[in-house]
Amino acid sequence: MGNRQKGRQTAAWELDAISNLVGIPRNQLENIYKDFRRVSKDYLLDKNEFRRIYKDLIRYSPQYQDKSHLPSCELNRRNNATADRIFKTFDRDHTGRLSFDEFISAYIMLQNSISPQIRLNFLLDHYSQNNGYITPTMGRRVIQDMSDLYGVNTDCQQVWRNLETNCPLKNGCIPQQAFTEYFINHPAYSSAFYNGVQIPLPPPSPQL
C-alpha cells in the first residue's frame, strides 16, 4: 500500500502506466497532475491544501450538485468534513501529507465510472509488489481503508478470517483475484462500488 514519506516528481512513464491500468485518458491525467502540483508544496498535500483542491475540484465535477441554497458556513463545513474523511483514509503512513500516488489512488477509488475490479486491482498492484497474493497485513489494511472510505461498519479481522476460510491460501496469503471477487460480491461493498459514495468526485483540470 506504500510508505511514501517524501514527495517526489511523478515521471511521464508513471502517468502512462496509470492511464493504461485504469483507462483515464492520458491528457486528463496530465491535467490532474498539474492541478496537484499547483496546490502542493514539495509534491505533497497537507490537509488544508487538500481541502482547498477538493473544494476547487468538486465545482467541475459532472456529478456536482448545486448547494448554493446552503449558508456558506454550512457548505464549508460539509466540504471540509468530506475532504477530511478522504484525506484520513489515504494518508496511509500517517504523515499528515498526501503524495501524488496517494492522491490519485483516492481519485481512482471514488470514480464510479471505473469498474470495481479495476479500482481494487489498481490499489493492490500500485502500492505493493504482491505477486498476485495478498498478505494478512496488507489485506487487513485495505479492508480498513475501504471500510473507512465507503462508510461500511465491519470488523476487518473477521472479514480477513472469512477470506482465509473460503479462499485457497499460499503461505498464509490470499490470491488477489479471490480477494477482489470477495469485495465485488459483498453486499455492503458492492453497493458502494456500483451505486456510488455520497462524495463529490475530483474532476479533471479545474482552473485553480
From TrEMBL:
<keyword id="KW-0479">Metal-binding</keyword>
<dbReference type="InterPro" id="IPR002048">
    <property type="entry name" value="EF_hand_dom"/>
</dbReference>
<dbReference type="InterPro" id="IPR011992">
    <property type="entry name" value="EF-hand-dom_pair"/>
</dbReference>
<keyword id="KW-0106">Calcium</keyword>
<feature type="domain" description="EF-hand">
    <location>
        <begin position="78"/>
        <end position="113"/>
    </location>
</feature>
<keyword id="KW-0677">Repeat</keyword>
<dbReference type="GO" id="GO:0005509">
    <property type="term" value="F:calcium ion binding"/>
</dbReference>
<dbReference type="InterPro" id="IPR018247">
    <property type="entry name" value="EF_Hand_1_Ca_BS"/>
</dbReference>
<dbReference type="InterPro" id="IPR028846">
    <property type="entry name" value="Recoverin"/>
</dbReference>
<keyword id="KW-0449">Lipoprotein</keyword>
<comment type="similarity">
    <text>Belongs to the recoverin family.</text>
</comment>
<keyword id="KW-0519">Myristate</keyword>
<protein>
    <recommendedName>
        <fullName>EF-hand domain-containing protein</fullName>
    </recommendedName>
</protein>
<dbReference type="Pfam" id="PF00036">
    <property type="entry name" value="EF-hand_1"/>
</dbReference>
